[in-house]
Amino acid sequence: MLRFVQVPDPEAHGVDGSMVTIATSTGIPAPAFTVTSSTPRLPAPPEEGPVRYMAYNLHQAFATSGEMDVDAIAQVIVDSGASVVGLQEVARGGLLNANTDLVHLLGDRLGWEHVVFFGTTDPVWGNAILSRYPLGEPERRELPTVGTPYRRGYLAAPVATPDGEVLFISTHLQHINDPDAHDEDPEADLYPVHTEQLGVILEEWDGRQPAVLVGDLNARPGWRQVEELLSAGWVDAWAEAGSGDGPTSNAADPRYRIDYVLHTPDLATVEVEVVESQASDHFAVVADLSAE
User: Fold this and answer.
1) Tens digit of pLDDT for each residue in 130-154?
2) Residue 50: pLDDT band by 50, 70, 90 thresholds?
3) Could you name the CATH architecture of 2-29+52-291?
4) Which of 79, 159, 167, 276 has the greatest number of beta carbons closer than 10 A?
5) Contact between 155 and 142 (Cβ < 8 Å)
């Protein structure tokens, strides 16, 4: 049996956009999930000082336990003190997450009105930007699949921070190309895909400053694709001010740093840290950036 539910239109720029209809089967048990309204909201954003940016792959709000808990994700953001957040693996409907619209719910839980979304793999799954500061007109572009099954995307918007307007980009690169080749050499497996995807990101960015790029790059420090970003003018906040290796994935057994906050050279990293939580299968990364 199918039932039809309505969720906010994923192409809407705010959390209260027009509605679209999604069909779901009532014959499939819904996953265990928690949605309450107890998450404390952050106070007004700072009017001066460094701006705290976050990169966070939500894993559709599924914790390492397998339970879906939207409020746990919201609490991670609240506790981090972030003011501008780039999210990946954000769902706005579907069977796996019981048609939960994470964009709408997180915006509501946090009390943040400035939200944009880009459905990449499908219209209700992709990247989002949440901000305590006003956002300008968003930019969206699909990244090349290069023969892989998942569509990734570039989502950007200017943010009106206390330091002035900053271009903020949230992205997510392909996680695997050929399974056999990946097991043997993940860098070599992903490089042909990543270099084309990063080429589009760099083209869209076009050297604009100041800018911040966050996301799950599915690439480790020192890999050729990461070095291409650095050679193009981006600065890795963790390399600039972090301590230790800073692994972000997998949250149940963190071994590799694949989630990044990068910035243009006219910004400087004051502080950067990994936010350890089991609310997703990734740890978040936050960085305080200030104008040079």
Assistant:
1) 999 999 999 999 999 998 888 999 9
2) very high
3) 4-Layer Sandwich (3.60)
4) 159
5) no
